[in-house]
User: What shape does this take?
Amino acid sequence: MLRTTLLAVCALLLACKAPESGETMTLGTGESTTATSVTTVNPTGDATTDPTGGTGGTGTTEPGATTTGMTGTATGTTGETTAVSASSSGSSGGGGACTPLDCGGAIYACGDCMDNDGDGKVDLADPECVSPCDDLEDTFATGLPGDNMDPCKQDCFFDGNSGGGKGDCAWDLKCDPMSPGGDKCPYDENFNNCPDMQTQECVETCQVPNGCDCFGCCTIAVDGMVYDVYLGDADCSVDNIESCSQCTKNADCDDDCNPEMCEVCFGETEPPPGCEEAMCDGGQSCTIDDMGNSDCPEGYYCATGCCYMIQPG
Assistant: This one.
């Protein structure tokens, strides 16, 4: 009789302790759960939620949610174009959080800490980004209004503008037998404005990456093949390299790339095998991590393993 009474009392006490829907109950291990949704973390870091919480046991996470497990933290995203952080990059070459690069008071696609073209490469870690003053990650062209947009007349491709001036670089695509100007500016063998030499100011001030000339004709290796492509071609990218406009280097302002001397060539971000760091003529060497960060000082960016001053248009 006494035993039956005790059992009845215990059952009554347990019923009183049952949590109402939405209340939190503290477990002996220090974890908490609710009557409507119980979340557990398995040893692999996957989160599972019971059916009353609306999520199945697949380990999926709603956009913007954060799930913490035994192996680290994975952060959800809210759009197709996403910022990348160290905890979510999943790459062995990660660094700290990405820092946007300013170009004359504006932030463009190649300096906004986002993988705008969805190829897994962010900003200057993307070979199609020639500088932070570049608003297209999916082609070598910059996409900036007025930047090297004349079908024939060209100045320094890498200074962020098309404004020619005294001592500035000057070239006409009519001079190139490869006709990189296309139908709008075909090669003209009788054209009489094809200077053999550029000014000393052009040669000294145009920041030409290894493997390029000052007018944006660059040598790039893709899948074991080498191409000389015109960066002003709005449709030219690594993925369609064979259809890019071909060009002829301007010998007077061409900066050859010498990987045997530890130079990083155009389209590459890592020093050649066997080289601890990139060789830079009179400049500071640098590295780019998988989030587009570099170790260049403020006001500079990293290209072909060397720091260059950011030159807005």
User: Anything to note?
Assistant: The helical segments are 2-17, 200-205. DSSP finds two helices and 14 strands in the chain.
